Amino acid sequence: MSLPAEAVAALDVFQNAAGWEQRARLLMQWGDRLPALSDADKIEANRVHGCESQVWLVGALVNGHWQFAANSDARLIRGLVALLLARVNGLSASELRAVDLPEWFAQLGLSRQLSPSRSNGLNAVLQRMNELAG
């Protein structure tokens, strides 16, 4: 399966990072670039349950491909969510179901950043995306 252009760009940047500190800085930068969600989107119905931090997710089907927007109140989680969005935006529902989250973050060199609770939280976000995609 081919990766969305944004995911290819993320891999390029993270795989060429000089080490963990540079990856951590990149993670924060990716999170800071996430567009803010409107207050209308930051409602209970859009909150992802299963995350320790607050995470809101909205999605829309555009010409058969899913486009998601998300944000979090936690800076590190925002970065991880931004990288998840890079991986999934533009996918069809069936491609979305095939996304391997641990593999994606391993490719980025961020596996050690995924504590069990963060991993569970990101899995909850991906699960919610799949629910939205039906």
Concise account of the structure shown:
The chain is mainly alpha-helical and 134 residues long. The protein has six helices and two strands, in the order ααββαααα. It has a two-stranded antiparallel sheet with strand order 1-2.
Please tell me about this protein's structure.
The protein contains 6 helices and 2 strands, in the order H-H-E-E-H-H-H-H. It has 134 residues and is mainly alpha-helical. The chain has one domain (5-133): Sufe protein. Chain: A (Alpha-Beta Complex). Strand 1 and strand 2 (65-72) form a beta hairpin.
Keywords:
single chain; globular; Sufe protein. Chain: A; mainly alpha; two-stranded antiparallel sheet; 134 residues
In this structure, how is the largest beta sheet organized? 2 strands, antiparallel
Radius of gyration: 14 Å
Major sheet: arrangement of strands: 1-2
% residues in beta strands: 5-15%
List the helices and strands and how they pair.
Blueprint: H1 5-15, H2 20-32, E1 55-62, E2 65-72, H3 75-88, H4 93-97, H5 101-107, H6 116-133
Antiparallel strand pairs: 1-2
Helix pairs in contact: 1-3, 2-3, 3-6
